[in-house]
Amino acid sequence: ARRGPLTLGLEEVSPGDTSLAGGKAANLARLRNSLGLPTPDGFVVTSSAFDALLDHQGLRERLHGELERISPFDLPDLSARCERMRQLVLDAELPAEVEQAVRGRAESLLARTGEPLLAMRSSAVGEDSEASFAGQYRTVLGVTAESVLQAYKTVVASKYTPKAVLYRLRYGLDEEDTPMAVLGLPMVRSRASGVVYTTDPTDRNAGTMRIDALWGL
Q1: Mind giving me the DSSP string for 89-155?
Q2: Strand 182-186 vs strand 192-197: parallel, antiparallel, or unpaired?
Q3: How far apart are CA 55 and CA 216, in angstroms?
Q4: Among 36, 61, 64, 192, which is 20 to 30 Å from 172 by CA?
Q5: pLDDT digits (tens, 9 = 90+) for 170-214
């Protein structure tokens, strides 16, 4: 099992520490801590917390029992096994120290920012690297301090969707090499929201950016 803190504020994340904070949080920390760019406040539930969850009450062995029998050539069986794995995570009891750490970080962040809600996002090890994992894992919006523990498990459970499992198989990534860290960020009460592509993905040679946006959240 990995050793280290169960949670970290983004200001505490070392930019290169993807093994603890995952790709997304480490990249955000680099923008914030090394380059001094304005980024959201936030925290990360680390891969050490993920390991603590898997080591609690035999969850790791039950998940591995399903994973060992998965075949990419038997999609109905893959789907059934993935459904069982996700339910195992959602039904799992979190270790007390993980519960305390995650709830404490959420309450502190919401109080500090004055925002009422969080977004809980995947920050798996290996994510946002050569294998982007774009769209593979869940993001949970509208999270309160009271619902943050279930939201954390929901993001972790998304590691075991059929598309995510097949994606890891395609890139030759082992289960143990891709632990799930989870990033907690305050939600902005936005007038408009969206995404900017620094290179338009529909025409990479056009030399243009692209913004997709809508009014509100």
Answers
A1: HHHPPPPHHHHHHHHHHHHHHHHHH--S-EEEEE--TTTTSSS--TTTS-EEEEE-TTTHHHHHHHH
A2: unpaired
A3: 41
A4: 61
A5: 877 777 888 999 999 999 888 999 999 999 888 888 889 999 999
